Automatic annotation (TrEMBL):
It comes from Flavobacterium ginsenosidimutans. Residues 103-306 form the Peptidase M28 domain. InterPro entries: M28_fam, Peptidase_M28. Gene3D superfamilies: Zn peptidases. This is M20/M25/M40 family metallo-hydrolase. It holds the Pfam family Peptidase_M28.
């Protein structure tokens, strides 16, 4: 997550402390949760996240050798799962960063001749903040929660769609660089997409989902009141998957991750899902944000529970997720 200077004091404290019409029937039909038999494997979640947050990648700072290794890893993953590049290659060069830096972008074409012209974006940022400059025993900010966890979940969803072909709409898979530098990767990409008249339906951005919350819902959404996305996801899963986190609204997290660049450019429902609630993880932008602290069963469950929702988003005959007026 882009660095939140105003949150640091808070995080420090957390360390311490009848008759229906045809139309009505159609609406009810589209509201039924989809049954998904596909199973997300804990072992695959673990292996993927372990490498992406490993010391070998040296904290994945944009423009470094460490993030280059991460980029190759993500390219290989997409290629292995037969997900095509959206551009000529998987690499989308940032236009707003001096050193060579790349978003990794793949596309899974929709199966419906008309709906495939519309896009759902599934995204997460794969960069982090790199190495500590002061001398200390551990200098690597591994960024397991921030945001290797989100990248891992998006990758698992990408594999699901690649294998099942369960998407009538096309799905853009995006792993952003430059998020920690000021949302640079997403800002760069949306400029290119706008010039292409990219037909965006909605974006789900996954941000910091490495540990669970002690709440009666699985995750929260940024900008809860800006659209009906939270309500629709819950409708699609048939569970209390998404809830409202007051701290999110208080600190306006909607504006702090890569969903905001897409919202600004397209004015469509573009929001982030997270399980970092300022109480359950003490190591935001800290060298102790490591793989060993990640809850693999939780990340697996999060991804599994979202599959009916992202499937429904990708197949609904109309665009049911809309901005609130």
């Amino acid at each position: 997550m882009k660095k939140l200077y105003f949150l640091l004091p808070l995080i420090f404290l957390a360390c311490k402390s009848g008759t229906s019409t045809t139309k009505d029937n159609e609406t009810k039909e589209t509201s039924k949760p989809i049954e998904v038999s596909y199973k997300v494997k804990e072992s695959e979640i673990s292996d993927f996240l372990k490498y992406l947050s490993s010391d070998e990648l040296e904290g994945r700072e944009t423009g470094t050798k460490g993030i280059e290794k991460a980029a190759v890893f993500l390219e290989d993953f997409l290629k292995k799962n037969k997900i095509k590049p959206y551009f000529k290659t998987y690499r989308d060069t940032l236009t707003n960063f001096e050193s060579p830096a790349f978003n990794i972008v793949g596309v899974i074409e929709g199966t419906d001749p008309q709906l495939k012209k519309e896009f759902v974006v599934l995204s997460a940022h794969y960069d982090h903040i790199g190495l500590e400059k002061k001398e200390q025993a551990d200098k690597i900010n591994n960024g397991a929660n921030d945001d290797a966890s989100g990248v891992t979940s998006v990758a698992a969803m990408a594999k699901y769609f690649s294998e099942t072909k369960a998407n009538k709409r096309s799905i853009l898979i995006v792993f952003f660089a430059g998020e920690e530098k000021g949302l640079l990767g997403s800002k760069s990409l949306v400029e290119k997409l706008k010039k292409q008249n990219f037909n965006l339906y909605t974006q789900l951005n996954i941000e910091m989902i490495g540990v669970p919350m002690k709440r009666d819902y699985l995750a929260y959404i940024t900008g809860f009141d800006k659209s009906n996305m939270a309500q629709k996801i819950n409708e699609y899963t048939g569970k209390n998957t998404i809830g409202f986190l007051p701290k999110e609204a208080e600190y306006q997290l909607f504006y702090r991750s890569d969903n905001y660049s897409f919202f600004q450019a397209f004015g469509k429902p573009c929001q982030s899902l997270s399980t970092f609630d300022f109480e359950n993880f003490d190591f935001y932008h800290h060298v102790s944000d490591e793989f060993k602290l990640m809850d693999i069963p939780h990340i697996t469950r999060f991804t599994q529970e979202l599959l009916p929702a992202v499937t429904k988003i990708a197949v609904s005959p109309t665009q049911e997720i809309t901005m609130n007026k």
